[in-house]
């Protein structure tokens, strides 16, 4: 099987879909006869691409313009490389592949769905254009041979756009647990606490892009009640975004400037240090169409570090957190319930440790990139050859 992966988001850019595309490509390149990626040009891509075990064909355009400018490259590469499958990290690059499929290459077209892009209405201010956009989205999703979703929640959104349930594969998302399993975790955690003046205070962390729907304001609003139960409790926010000024003002208005720290955008190593240093992670996203948490990978990353989590019952989050097992679920926007949940974890180290270890086990055995990529590989291969052997019979070099 030869696979052409088309993505608007790919490293060295950082983000959820970038990670998804990269981790998928690394594994498919080992299991497939051939794999090639089509992605936009980004600063520093030459050095990054040089270390990859597959070809990346870069399009000189913005990520949005690639939807149109990438079509000639897709057609040319699909036919020249005799690619059996085109796999699209977003539906918006699919129209060209559906047209090319009529001529035999690729033979199959698959699309990944993450959540937000299924609710997006970028042209809502001009009704005719939005209507055409909606129609194209439905056509691509319905016309694809299969749709891969990160959660049952996102699968439901896909069905709502007319995709037959038997063409939807819920593949979840994954984590590279080894990346978070650092040998000097305790020393790094101690140094993180020293750098940020936390000492021995119990604290929880949020790691996210700061948008209003992410619920950081709920966590801040929960702090007075939390500190009533755990007096030394602190909150560390890692990330940047348009909601940062409002969040700073909220913390100050509640008299929490000494107890809520905003670190801004930090390195990947600093994120790992924060996760090892904290007592718990919280992300309290709420539904604010088109913004929704289709999965919530950061919960799995915290689990990989052995940390319990608190999340809202919103979007795909309840599918990631085992309530009472790897963490606790609370109603979205409920500051009182959030304070109680965090107090349970910050005030009970044994409970926090137990849930953290359960999260670590889940990150290592269930929510892995190997498992996600294998589900994608098998679905595409079975579509081409319904009589194909199961994964256990492949024996291909590089099998995880």
Account of the 3D structure:
The structure is a single chain. The protein folds into two domains: 2-174 and 368-393, 3-Layer(aba) Sandwich (Rossmann fold), CATH 3.40.50.2000; 177-365, Glycogen Phosphorylase B (Rossmann fold), CATH 3.40.50.2000. It contains 17 helices and 13 strands. The strands form two sheets. The protein has a seven-stranded parallel beta sheet, sandwiched between helices. It has a six-stranded parallel beta sheet with strand order 10-9-8-11-12-13, sandwiched between helices. With 400 residues, the protein is of the alpha/beta class.
The proportion of residues in beta strands is 15-25%
What's the average pLDDT? Answer: 93
Count of individual domains:
2
CATH class of the largest domain: Alpha Beta
- Counting helices, strands and paired strands, the structural category is alpha/beta
Q: What is the CATH topology descriptor of the largest domain? A: Rossmann fold
Total strands: the figure is: 13
Count of helical stretches = 17
* String of helices and strands: EHEHEHEHEHHEHEHHEHEHEHEHEHEHHH
As a percent range, the share of helical residues equals 40-55%
- Most strands sheet: 7 strands, parallel
Ranges where pLDDT stays below 50 over 5 or more residues in a row are: 391-400
Shape: globular
CATH superfamily of the largest domain: Glycogen Phosphorylase B
Explain the layout of strands and helices:
Layout (H helix, E strand, L loop, with lengths): L1 E5 L9 H16 L2 E7 L4 H6 L4 E5 L6 H15 L4 E4 L5 H8 L6 E6 L2 H4 L7 H17 L2 E4 L2 H9 L7 E3 L6 H4 L4 H11 L7 E5 L8 H14 L4 E5 L5 H10 L6 E5 L3 H10 L2 E4 L13 H8 L4 E4 L4 H4 L6 E4 L4 H12 L2 H17 L3 H16 L16
Parallel strand pairs: 1-2, 1-4, 2-3, 4-5, 5-6, 6-7, 8-9, 8-11, 9-10, 11-12, 12-13
Helix pairs in contact: 1-17, 3-4, 9-12, 10-15, 13-16
